Amino acid sequence: MKTRALIAVALLSLTTLLHSVSAGAAPSASPADGITRLMQGNARFSAGKPKGPNRSSQRRQEVAAMQKPFAVIVSCSDSRVAPELLFDQGIGDLFVVRTAGHVVDDVALGSIEFALAKLGAGSILVLGHERCGAVQAALEHTEVPGSIGKVLEAIKPAVGGPEKATPESLERAARRTRRW
Question: What dihedral angle (degrees, nearest 10) is formed by the CA atoms of 179, 93, 38, 71?
Answer without folding.
Answer: 30
